[in-house]
Amino acid sequence: MKKKILIFGGSGLVGSTFIDYGKDTFDISYTYNTNDLKIDYVKSFKINFLSDGKKISNIIKEYNPDVIIHMVAFPSVDFCEENHQLATELHVNATKKIVEQASINKSKLIFLSTDAVFGGKLNKKYTEDDLTNPVNYYGVTKLNAEKIVLENPTNIVVRTSVIYGWHDKSRFTNWILDSLKQNKIVDPFIDQFNCPTLVDDLAKSLIKMIDLDISGLFHASGKTCINRYDFAVKLSKKFEYDENLIIPVTSKEKKQEAPRPNSTCLDSSKLEETIDFEFSTLDEGISFILDKSRGF
Prior knowledge:
The chain is an alpha/beta fold and about 300 residues long. The protein has helices at about 15-20, 55-65, 75-80, 85-105, 135-150, 170-180, 200-210, 230-240, 270-275, 280-295, and strands spanning about 5-10, 25-30, 45, 65-70, 110-115, 155-160, 165, 195, 195-200, 215-220, 225.
């Protein structure tokens, strides 16, 4: 009997990749807002979490999943900074509804969170034991949602960062590669550090978390702590584009609406040891997407 997996927000980068890897192992259903993936033998539900909140419970009741993966979030940190009420409604209130119905249904919940829960002042990779201190509203709402999810000890919170892959929804890599391909200048930040995460690794690790039925708080990100400028340079070299088109910029020079932490690199060793899995370095990840771009 296959485990039943319900993905809230399944048409995005992580959800669609998870479905691709897991559709033969699990009985998967997913929700979408505007973009239905239309995959054979995978059921989908259209829902707008901001206007159709009552549907959340009904979908959980109807599908009766063993595991729910909650990936719904605003993609823009700056949007959340300017729209506190909407960010709270989607990230916190909708999560609370999911948690409540999942508990009634006895479904395990996996919640995708973010490195933005940290303040970015530590000169090291953050572990799950380090104190949180978000500097923007996006991070505040995700942290509040984490606390709600972890009230049930069987649930999982997965913090990740800068997810990329060979995918039309991989925003940073597509911006860099598409621009360089057209000989356009790009200006990534040189003073914001994260650990970029290959989406294929994240999908595979989620499958192992489900198979092993683990619970708790975990970091799940790539091994390489790097700024966006150096990330872009690595991309340009591997794909053989002109790195002179990449102009480094600082946070002061290119203002963003929401403040950004300086360095929120994550240490994923706890999860790696728990599920016997190894996340890719950035060089390995870029080689992987180059191979995919060539059809390997």
